């Protein structure tokens, strides 16, 4: 029989921890070996135990007092890089998703998922396989794109930079309009402004410009 996956639950709400613990205890493939109310408590818990008693997985809330989920993820992985971390949260803001993933979380799961979906995410994380719902994946994509285009000094607006990245990805005006929820006419205006500001002649040159800036992966 396969050894059970050891899990620690971290959430600042007692009832949430209790509910998650109760459910996971019914799953023979998981063993809840500890819990904490915030990131500092988790780090203290880990530091007080030999490595062989550490969890395989940490199932952790994102917004907590003392140390939030992203901060805790960075701190845990800096000390104990073999531990896999799954963020379980109610928040879907683009920047929060990016921050958690950049910190090293394997998966980012909303608290609205079904029990089966949560188990699937934990099983995937234990194998090092990221599991995210469509909403989370879209938020991650938007957040990364937003960060990528920040800091340029060409005088582009943030919306123009978003359009530029989509042009570089080979998207048509219609595709861009649908993705950004704007009209095709507005897209055309942004493209014209981009050509003027970058002193370029066509969409191909815009795409090359974005690649040279390192904004688009080849």
TrEMBL record:
Matching SMART domains: HTH_LUXR (SM00421), REC (SM00448)
Coiled-coil regions listed in the entry: none
PROSITE patterns linked to this entry: HTH_LUXR_1 (PS00622), HTH_LUXR_2 (PS50043), RESPONSE_REGULATORY (PS50110)
InterPro entries recorded: CheY-like_superfamily (IPR011006), NreC/VraR/RcsB-like_REC (IPR058245), Sig_transdc_resp-reg_C-effctor (IPR016032), Sig_transdc_resp-reg_receiver (IPR001789), Tscrpt_reg_LuxR_C (IPR000792), WalR-like (IPR039420)
Keywords: DNA-binding, Phosphoprotein, Transcription, Transcription regulation
Transmembrane spans: none
Pfam family, one: GerE
SUPFAM superfamilies per record: C-terminal effector domain of the bipartite response regulators, CheY-like
CDD domains: LuxR_C_like, REC_NarL-like
Modified sites of kind 4-aspartylphosphate: 61
Ranges of residues in domain HTH luxR-type: 149-214
GO molecular function, one term: DNA binding
Domain Response regulatory: 6-126
Name of protein: DNA-binding response regulator
Organism: Paenibacillus cineris
